[in-house]
Specification:
Helix content is 75%, strand content 0%. It is built from 25 helices and no strands. One of its GO terms (molecular function) is proline:sodium symporter activity.
Length: 596
C-alpha cells in the first residue's frame, strides 16, 4: 500500500511529537529512583489508569483480537480470558489494595514484607527478578513481531518487517529510557486519546458501510451469538473454508472445555496477583491503597469500548468485502486482517490517524514493558549487592543500560518468532501459568514460607520454559493443570520440610496487608500481642464483587460489538447489565473503600 502524502505527514508529525513530548517531560524523571520508576507517587490515579489501559491497548493484541472476532464472532469475547483479562477485576476489588499497602518499589522488594530478610527471602527475590526480566523480554518480542507485520503492509518502502519494527523500536526506546515513568504516563495519555478517536471512527465507518443483512450473508449461523455450548458448532464450509482449518489449528472445537480451562487458569492466576510488570508498577506508583483500587478499575472502564469498536469495525468490513477474496485465496494469515482491512476501507487522512493510533498502541506497550523491568535489576541486585552507596543519578544511568539490553534481547527473540499467536500463547498460557501456584499461596496460607516460594517458582518456570521445547504442539491451556500440579507440590513440600518464617514478620505483614485465607495462627499471635487490633477482612464481600465485576467487564466488551453490528436489542440488554452491575459495584465496593 502506498500511503498518501497526508497520511505520511500525520504519522511523521505524531512520531516526532511523541518523541518531543517524552524528552521534554524527561527533565522530571532523573532525580532519583523513586521519580524515575514511580514518578514519586505523585501522578493521579486516573492518569495512571488511562496510562495502564493504553499500555494494554497494544497493536499485536489488537491484531489477534480482530483475527479471533473474524473467526469466532461474538464468542471471541470470551477468548481474552486466556490472558486472563479479568485479572483487572481481582486487582480492582482487593489485590491492588493489598499490594499498595506495602509502600515498596518492586515486587521483589515486596517479598521482604512477606518473608523477611533471611536466605530464603533472598532466593525468592532472585527468582522474581529472573521472572520479571524473562517476561519483559517476552513482551518486547511480542510487540516486535506485531509492529513489523503491521508496518510492512502500510509503509511504501520495500523493507523487511523486522527492519520496520527495529526503526520504530529505536524511537520509542529513546524517550522511555530518557524520561522514565513521567514520559511513559504522559505520552500514553496522549496516545490513548489518539487511539480512541481512531477506534471510534473505524466503528462508525463500519456501521455506515455494512448492514446487518450483509453481515448475516457473510457469516455462518451462530456467528453473532455470544453464548456457547460444549462444542463450537460454527461451520464456515462454503463461506470461507479455510476458517475451519484455523479453528482446528487453534484446538477450539471443544469450545466449552477451552473456556472452562481458561476460567480455571484465569481465576488462579488472578488470585496470585499481578506479575512483576507495568501493571504492578502502576499500582505501586499510586498515592494510596484506595487510589490503587480505583486505578485498576479505571483500566476496564476506559479500555474496552473504543478497542472493541475498532475490533468489530475492522472485522465486519473484512468479512463482507474481503470474505470472497479470502475464500478464493485459500490459505490466509488471519493475523493480517487488521492491516488489510485498514488498507482497503479507511479513507485518506483517517488512515494516517488510524495508523498513528495503532503505532501509539504499540509504543504504549513497549514503553510500559521497557520502563517496568529495569528497576528489578537496578534496585534489587545492583544497588543492594554491588553498589549500595552510589548516587541516585548513577542508578538511573544503570537503568538506561539495562533497558537497552532488554530491548536488544527482545528484538533477538522476536526475529525468530513465526507468529503473534505463538508468543501470546507462550506468555499467557505457559509462563504466567508457572507463576500462579507460589504467588497464590503467598497471599492465602500463613505456613507457606520463602523456600516454598522459591522452589515453587523455580519448578513453574522450568516446566513452563521447557513446554515449548519438549512438546511444541501442546496447547498451553492443556499443559496448565500439569504445570500447576508440579508447582503446588514443590511449594508445599519445600514449605513443610523447612522452618516456618519468623512470626514477627508474619504478624507485621498480616497487620499491614490484612489478607484473607488460612492465617489463624498469625491472627491469634497478633491479637495476643495487640488485643485491641481491628482487622476488617471481608472475603465473602470481595469474592461477590469479583463475580459481579467479571460480568460488568464482559458487558463492556460485548456492548461495542453489538453496537457496531447493529443488533440493538442485544446492545440494550448488555447496556442494562452494565448499568446494574455498575450500581452494585458502586454500593458494595467503591463506597466501602477506606482511605489509607
Amino acid at each position: 500500500m502506498n500511503l498518501s502524502s497526508l497520511d505520511i505527514g500525520v504519522i511523521v508529525i505524531y512520531l516526532l511529537g511523541t518523541l518531543a513530548l517524552g524528552l521534554y517531560i524527561s527533565r522530571l524523571a532523573g532525580r532519583n529512583m523513586g521519580t524515575y520508576f514511580l514518578a514519586g507517587n505523585r501522578i493521579p490515579w486516573w492518569a495512571l489508569g488511562v496510562s495502564n489501559a493504553s499500555g494494554m491497548f497494544d497493536i499485536a493484541g489488537t491484531m489477534w483480537l480482530v483475527s479471533m472476532c473474524f473467526v469466532y464472532g461474538l464468542k471471541s469475547a470470551w477468548l481474552p480470558w486466556v490472558w486472563p483479562i479479568f485479572n483487572q477485576i481481582f486487582l480492582m476489588i482487593y489485590l491492588s489494595v493489598w499490594l499498595r499497602r506495602s509502600g515498596v518499589m518492586t515486587g521483589a522488594q515486596w517479598l521482604q514484607t512477606r518473608f523477611g530478610n533471611g536466605d530464603g527471602a533472598r532466593l525468592c527475590q532472585f527468582v522474581v527478578i529472573a521472572f520479571a526480566l524473562v517476561s519483559a523480554v517476552g513482551f518486547i518480542a511480542y510487540a516486535f513481531k506485531g509492529i513489523g507485520k503491521f508496518a510492512a503492509i502500510f509503509f511504501p518502502w520495500d523493507i523487511a518487517p523486522d527492519v520496520y519494527a527495529l526503526i520504530i523500536f529505536v524511537v520509542t526506546t529513546l524517550y522511555v529510557i530518557k524520561g522514565g515513568m513521567y514520559s511513559v504516563v504522559f505520552t500514553e495519555i496522549l496516545q490513548f486519546v489518539l487511539m480512541t478517536v481512531a477506534a471510534v471512527a473505524v466503528g462508525i465507518i463500519a456501521m455506515s458501510e455494512v448492514s446487518p443483512q450483509q453481515l448475516a450473508a457473510a457469516t455462518p449461523e451462530g456467528w453473532d451469538e455470544v453464548m456457547f455450548s460444549w462444542r463450537l458448532d460454527l461451520n464456515w464450509q462454503g463461506v470461507i473454508d479455510s476458517v475451519n482449518d484455523k479453528i482446528a489449528n487453534d484446538s477450539m472445537e471443544l469450545f466449552g472445555l477451552m473456556i472452562m480451562l481458561m476460567l480455571f487458569k484465569g481465576v488462579l492466576t488472578s488470585m496470585a496477583g499481578p506479575v512483576p510488570s507495568y501493571d504492578m508498577q502502576r499500582i505501586l506508583a499510586t498515592r494510596s491503597a484506595k487510589d490503587a483500587a480505583k486505578m485498576s478499575g479505571m483500566v476496564s472502564l476506559v479500555m474496552f469500548f473504543p478497542r472493541y469498536m475498532m475490533v468489530a469495525g475492522l472485522t465486519i468490513l473484512a468479512l463482507v468485502y474481503m470474505g470472497p477474496e479470502i475464500q478464493a485465496q485459500g490459505a490466509f494469515d488471519f493475523e493480517q486482517i487488521l492491516p488489510y482491512a485498514i488498507n482497503q476501507f479507511v479513507p485518506v487522512g483517517l488512515t494516517g490517524l488510524l495508523i498513528a493510533g495503532l503505532l501509539a498502541a504499540f509504543m504504549s506497550t513497549l514503553a510500559a514493558s521497557v520502563n517496568a523491568a529495569p528497576v528489578y535489576f537496578v534496585n534489587d541486585i545492583y544497588k543492594r549487592y554491588f553498589r549500595p552507596d552510589e548516587s541516585d543519578r548513577t542508578y538511573v544511568k544503570v537503568s538506561y543500560l539495562v533497558s537497552a539490553l532488554l530491548v536488544l534481547c527482545g528484538v533477538t527473540v522476536g526475529v525468530f518468532l513465526e507468529s503473534i499467536n505463538s508468543i501470546m500463547q507462550w506468555i499467557f498460557g505457559a509462563l504466567f501459568g508457572g507463576y500462579a501456584a507460589a504467588n497464590l499461596l503467598k497471599w492465602h496460607w500463613w505456613r507457606f514460607n520463602s523456600y516454598g516460594y522459591f522452589w515453587g517458582m523455580i519448578a513453574g518456570l522450568v516446566v513452563s520454559l521447557a513446554i515449548p521445547l519438549i512438546a511444541p504442539e501442546t496447547h498451553p491451556l492443556y499443559a496448565f493443570p500439569w504445570l500447576l500440579l508440579v508447582s503446588v507440590i514443590a511449594c508445599i513440600v519445600a514449605s513443610l520440610v523447612t522452618p516456618q518464617d519468623d512470626m514477627q514478620t508474619l504478624t507485621q505483614f498480616y497487620r499491614t496487608v490484612r489478607p484473607w485465607g488460612v492465617w489463624g495462627p498469625v491472627r491469634d499471635a497478633l491479637l495476643k500481642e495487640e488485643p485491641n487490633t481491628q482487622l476488617a477482612i471481608t472475603p465473602y464481600r470481595d469474592l461477590t464483587n469479583v463475580a459481579v465485576g467479571i460480568i460488568w467487564q464482559l458487558s463492556l466488551v460485548i456492548m461495542p460489538i453489538y453496537l457496531v453490528i447493529q443488533q440493538w436489542r442485544e446492545f440494550a440488554l448488555a447496556t442494562v447489565v452494565m448499568v446494574l452491575t455498575s450500581w452494585f459495584l458502586k454500593v458494595n465496593w467503591l463506597n466501602k473503600l477506606n482511605d489509607e
